[in-house]
Amino acid sequence: xxxxxxxxxxxxxxxxxxxxxVRPPRRPELRLPPLVEPPGWGLVPDGDYDGVExxxxxxxxxxxxxxxxxxxxxxDCGLGGTRLTRARFVDSRLExxxxxxxxxxxxxxxxxxxIDARLGGTQAHxxxxxRVVVRGGKLDYLNLRxxxxxxxxxxxxxxxxxxxxxASLERVAFVDCVVKGADFNKVTLKDxxxxxxxxxxxxxxxxxxxxxxxxxxxxxxxxxALAAELGMRVLDLGE
Length: 239
Fold this sequence. Notes:
Elements: E1 48-50, E2 53-55, E3 68-70, E4 73-75, E5 88-95, E6 98-100, E7 108-120, E8 128-140, E9 148-155, E10 158-160, E11 168-175, E12 178-183, E13 188-193, E14 199-204, H1 216-230
Parallel strand pairs: 1-3, 2-4, 3-5, 4-5, 5-7, 6-7, 7-8, 8-9, 8-10, 9-11, 10-12, 11-13, 12-14
């Protein structure tokens, strides 16, 4: 009886899995259930809305402060001056909303998609955004001072003079979007990726970008602001 030879097991170590230089954001996995029409009382403070579809509604100057929106859709709605302070949006989508002066201070957005929004002067200071995608549209003078952003993607949108002053950003990416005149004063960044931004303009707080990932081309574009931040004088020979 012959014995079957066995191959010795390889003792070579497996190659270590490479950790990405910048951890990407986790995107929301949004699947809305069948939706119902808004209740007869409409938008009210501390309201509780579950699986509601607001479509084409003029919610301008309405008051939904402290309201809760779960599995909801706001589509083609006017939000000019709408008060949504400390409101909670969970597993919801805001699509083609528009308006000036929307109040989202200290609001919570978790597992939310914001699609093709056209908003100006939105006050979202102190807000909490987690697993949020902002895709398309234009946001002018977005105030995110002191906000907390985690797993957030700004994609193919235009941000004009966004204010991130004092905010905390973790796993935030700017993809194919235009950023003009941003304020990064006293911001805290971790795994923030700016490399794919189509345009990156920083008006204030260039030093706040410490830890962010930028491309070589962006570094060249930001060189004058970086030199000014460091107090460097860039002079031609003979000057």
